[in-house]
Specification:
Blueprint lengths: L3 E7 L5 E6 L2 H9 L15 E8 L2 H12 L3 H8 L6 H4 L14
Antiparallel strand pairs: 1-2, 1-3
Length: 104
């Protein structure tokens, strides 16, 4: 059975890169050795693997990767720090223009 991994790399510029792979060791090697010069991480080395989650179904892995890519930095850091319970709180819109700030 193949395992798929969603991973987050912390880049030298403090940004995060999120990806999915069926071979995490190979993929980390490719990032570290700039196999693709157009890759986001090519100019942001060194890199540190800060998170990975494993899936048995590729569709679940791709779905989770897309979800994480759309998250704020704070939400990514919550899962990196294994604070999954903070995700709900971090999902609440706190903008002054939020619909939750208007009287009903």
């Amino acid at each position: 059975m193949e395992i798929y991994t969603v991973y987050i790399l912390k880049c030298a510029d403090n940004s995060y890169y999120t990806g999915v792979t069926n071979d995490i060791d190979r993929r980390l090697y490719e990032h570290e050795n700039t196999i693709n010069v157009n890759c986001y991480t090519a100019e942001r080395r060194p890199l540190a693997l800060v998170f990975c989650e494993h899936f048995e179904d590729i569709n679940d892995a791709i779905s989770f990767e897309k979800q994480v890519k759309g998250w704020s930095r704070k939400k990514k850091e919550a899962i990196i720090n294994d604070n999954w319970d903070k995700l709900k709180e971090l999902s609440i819109c706190k903008n002054t223009t939020s619909h939750t700030n208007f009287a009903k």
